[in-house]
């Protein structure tokens, strides 16, 4: 069985504190017992599940939502103090409560209570329940305090381990950075040496190519000279030797011109040209024959 005691103020007697106790077995929606006291007198009543359902129907609300509103008003005391208004008539023993929304209020429920003949016993039970609740809350508080201390120790332990991990991580990072710098410097030095070797090799290759190109040009020039000389010799062999034939032709021309029988200049020119043709061919053939004989001798 669960119990809940709350402090309320009645609208008819706002200066007097009243205590409201609600007791239920399973859930608040299955029914509960309500007890009201002002410290001198006591009133009690039982609210069954059918009455709760009837109140929900009258309010045009779902039962679950209505039970939630009952719990907020009678048990949990959720919301501001002026969110609910309680009314009780000692003459008729009618208890009702309303919910206030701004300037509008609507009734949540109303129950008929009965006056208790021996209020002292009810008040004693109420005080005992309050003390039991206080003891239970103290035990829970102690348990929560111990749990909090344990969690604090665990947190300190985890924090210490975390700090150690952070220190170890920083040490490892510093070591890795130092090693990385060493490796990086070695790689840079190796790259510079390779670049130097590459530049030297390229320079050497250029020098070798330059040296190869220079004799090639001289060889090409030397190869061209014999060919040029050979072609000149051949041309010289093919040219006719007019050194011997030219004086003879001139002497003949002079004899023809000085001859007294020539009276016309034009015929003598034609005759002279024909004679030069015949004289030019005979010495040429005569000059070529000794050259052919010399070439045959050199071949053998």
Summarize the structure.
By secondary structure, the protein is of the alpha+beta class. Helices cover 64% and strands 18% of the residues.
- What is the averaged pLDDT score? 76
Task: State the separation between the terminal residues, measured CA to CA.
Answer: 149 Å
Helix content: 55-70%
Annotation field: number of helices: 5
User: Sheet bearing the most strands, described?
Assistant: 5 strands, antiparallel
Low-confidence stretches: 231-250, 252-266, 281-287
Major sheet: arrangement of strands: 1-2-3-4-8
Shape: elongated
Q: Label the structural class.
A: alpha+beta
Give the H and E element order.
EEEEHHEEEEHHH
**Strand share of the residues?**
15-25%
Record field, number of beta strands: 8
Radius of gyration: 71 Å
How does this model look, in words?
The protein has five helices and eight strands; from the N terminus they run E-E-E-E-H-H-E-E-E-E-H-H-H. It has helices spanning 49-58, 63-76, 119-238, 245-258, 265-299, and strands at residues 2-9, 17-24, 31-37, 42-48, 84-89, 94-101, 104-112, 114-115. The protein has a five-stranded antiparallel beta sheet with strand order 1-2-3-4-8, with helices on both faces. The chain has a three-stranded antiparallel beta sheet with strand order 5-6-7, covered by helices on one side. 64% of the residues lie in helices and 18% in strands. Helix 4 (245-258) packs antiparallel against helix 5. With 300 residues, the protein is of the alpha+beta class.
